[in-house]
Amino acid sequence: MAKDTRIKTSEELVIKLGYDPSDVKVVVEVIKSKNEDIQTLRKQFKLPITEHPQTKKVTILEMEKDNLFTLVVEQNAKIQKMEQDMEALLKEKEQWEATGTSTGISTVQTSAGTSAT
User: How far apart are CA 40 and CA 5, in angstroms?
Assistant: First the structure.
């Protein structure tokens, strides 16, 4: 009964789209309907879905790509942190140079135990 239904559906597709053996639309529709039939039969028989041989390779490559992307993001975050630290140190150095050049030497000497005037 299901086979008869599918035959009628295929006939309807051919009639609907027109019958021409060289017509790509009809062939594509028939192939789609056959693929759907195959999938339903596999579900009925609970057969495992076949995988393309390159599926595992593509999956591994995608995982490696994701890992590399994560690494790049982490490295960019570290670089930004280092740049912020460098900017803070440069500001601190500029402040020290601006305020500590004339008194910085005497402060260093007095902290070493010698008095400076």
Answer: 14
For the chain, how big is the Rg over CA atoms in Å? Answer: 38
Question: How far apart are the C-alpha atoms of 38 and 4, rounded to whole Å?
Answer: 16
Distance of alpha carbon 93 from alpha carbon 110, whole angstroms: 21
Residues in the chain: 117
Give the DSSP letter of residue 30. H
Q: Which residue type sits at 50? A: T
CA–CA separation, 71 and 69 (whole Å):
5
Block means of pLDDT (10 residues each) for the chain, 117 residues, are 64 63 68 81 73 83 91 93 95 88 49 48
Residue 96: both structure tokens together: 């020290």
Q: How many CB atoms lie within 10 A of CB 106?
A: 14
Rounded-to-integer distance, Cα 65 and Cα 9, Å = 44
State the DSSP code for 52: -
